[in-house]
Write a structure and sequence with these properties.
- The chain is mainly β.
- The protein has one domain: Sandwich (Immunoglobulin-like).
- The protein contains one helix and ten strands; from the N terminus they run H-E-E-E-E-E-E-E-E-E-E.
- Strand 4 and strand 5 form a beta hairpin.
- The longest helix is centred in the N-terminal third of the chain and has 16 residues.
- The protein binds copper (II) ion.
């Protein structure tokens, strides 16, 4: 699938999740998953998020049918050493955009339940506020190096 088609799909799913016909509060784009490195059981997903509403939105988790677990993570660099930690929640301020990207926030995908192959796509769900669910499809890409956390 092309990136444009994926973005359209993500938007369509976001609209559907929102329901009632009003424009979606939370919109994801550019979602991609890096296939696990050989011998590894963890993958990472990145995406761009936009909060189009006039209130803040709190993410409190992620999930994927393709992985046993998914966690919100953040990489920080301290004294030149990168480390990452789970985040219980992430606030996306009203009207703001946020990037999940290498060296920063990411979605850790743990223990694939099936092969995650470049060129395929992986369903992802972001859970926010009380019962908010943003469903999207992330394109699987080949991981370039080991520092993409
Ligand atoms: Cu991580």
């Amino acid at each position: 699938m092309t990136r444009a088609a994926l973005v359209l799909l993500a938007c369509a799913l976001a609209l559907q999740a929102c329901g009632e016909g009003d424009s979606p509060a939370l919109v994801a784009s550019h979602a991609r998953v890096f296939a696990p490195l050989p011998g590894r059981t963890a993958s990472v997903a990145y995406l761009d998020l936009e909060n189009r509403s006039s209130r803040s939105i709190t993410l409190h988790g992620a999930s994927s049918p393709a992985f046993a677990r998914a966690e919100l993570h953040e990489t920080t660099i301290s004294n030149g050493v990168a480390s990452m930690r789970p985040l219980a929640s992430i606030v996306v301020e009203a009207g703001s955009q946020m990037q999940f990207e290498p060296g920063g926030k990411h979605i850790m995908l743990i223990d694939p339940l099936k092969a995650v192959l470049p060129g395929a796509s992986v369903p992802l769900q972001l859970h926010y506020d009380d019962a908010g669910l943003l469903a999207l499809e992330a394109e699987v890409q080949t991981r370039l190096d080991d520092n993409d956390n």
